[in-house]
Structure of Glucosamine-6-phosphate deaminase:
Amino acid sequence: MRVTVVDDEKFAIAAADALMARLPAGAPRLGVATGGTPMRLYAELGRRSRGGEIDLSDATLVALDEYVGLDVDDRHSYAAYVRVRIADPLGVPPANILVPQGSREDPEAAAAEFEAVVAGLGVDVQIAGIGSNGHLAFNEPGSPLDSMTRVVGLSEQTRRDNARFFGGRIEAVPRYAITQGLGTICRARSVLLLAAGPAKADALAAALSGPVAADVPASVLQRHPDVTVIADPAAWCKMAS
Ligand code: GLP
């Protein structure tokens, strides 16, 4: 496991450098996380793309998860997040964006189909964040370490954390999501884990230095052969002690 601890102003640069170092040339398959933490990475990639330093327009973007019940055009959907914050700035065409279809009448079927698509494609580098409860994508505590893409219920903690994206209203945060499983995520050839802020300190320490166990879903990454961690000092502080 490679670890870089960097201050806020260098976080995006370190994350973008780490990503580009692991991403193969050609038409890479890039697994993308949503949430607040990777936004600055995506902004930095957009800046490099506009400046001609990188060209990811041939990439295929594979999302980790999606809320059940939100349409792709809903601005709170992860489909919209991937389109607006990642694909558009990088010039990735809509046909190269893969997000679980949370608005399908049968989300279980959508999950199974997504699993098959991701398995067939193969992700080169998976960008990941970590929830304050140790979740990975939407695999909440208790998720089997070998789980596949499926419909899951979201914990109170996660809905509370994500209410900030829904105008602060927890009741507006969907109760269910489709998420890649921990087993699905671990098939990616390389994982880039991003963690920032004091709210992630306990979860990060438990995930990286505690036992590998379903009650800390991100701990499954200890079993992955190629993980790069970019953390800020606040998220890393419990590791150092
Ligand atoms: C969200 C997403 C995860 C993300 C995590 C952390 O709920 N489903 O993929 O990594 O929680 O998000 P943030 O970076 O906003 O703290």
